[in-house]
Each structure stands twice: as structure tokens, then as C-alpha cells.
Specification:
The protein is mainly β. The chain is built from no helices and 8 strands.
Amino acid sequence: MRTLSLASASRGLGTGEWDAGVFLSLARFANNFYLSTEVGYLWLGDSPGAIYQNPVSYAVGVGRTFVNSRLGLLLLYSGTSTIFADYKAPQQIGMGVNWRLSNRLGLFTNFARGLSETVPDFGFAT
């Protein structure tokens, strides 16, 4: 993974530096249940006045499929190692719902609850 530096540090949005990462994801299915894991490493660009520690990222989730495996529910715990020396590492727990429309297309929605001060208290993503 590599992110383009589209934000502008002079406007107070982002660092203006390139970020990069590498991730490994594994999933194991048994009947209608599955286990999902991910681990990664991020190289974060620094900004003036802030120095970031490159974090290790991790996630583990358990899920179940329904409706001929077209509908899925996933409970996920994720976080990273410390990014800022003075703050606790980011952590969150979430519940995801996915709907497989075809073998190549699906929809995914995630509701999250932050567990540390470095992530939002609540989140929603599609």
C-alpha cells in the first residue's frame, strides 16, 4: 500500500508527506463461521512539529455468514502500536455487515467504537 500525498500541511490537513505500508491478511472458514486476521507495518511521513513512530497494525475478527453465505456479520478488534510517544496506541472495536451481490461485487458497512483517545469515539464506514 502506498498513499498519495494529496493533503496540504500548510492548510492544516495531513502531513504533505508520502505514507507506505505492507500488510498480510489471512482468513479461515469453517461451515458458516470465519476468523479473519491482519498484520501490517506503516511508514508514516513526518510533518513540521510532529514526529510519528512507524506503527505495526493488527486486526482480528470473528464472523458468521447467513442467507446462503450472501450476508455476513463480523466482530472486529483492531489497532496499531504507538504512533505518538505521549499518547496511548489507537484501538477500536467494530461490527461489520457485508452483503455479497455477486462473486465479484459486495457491499460492506462497519460501525466502530474507539477504545483509546487517539481514535474517534464512534465511526461509520461503507
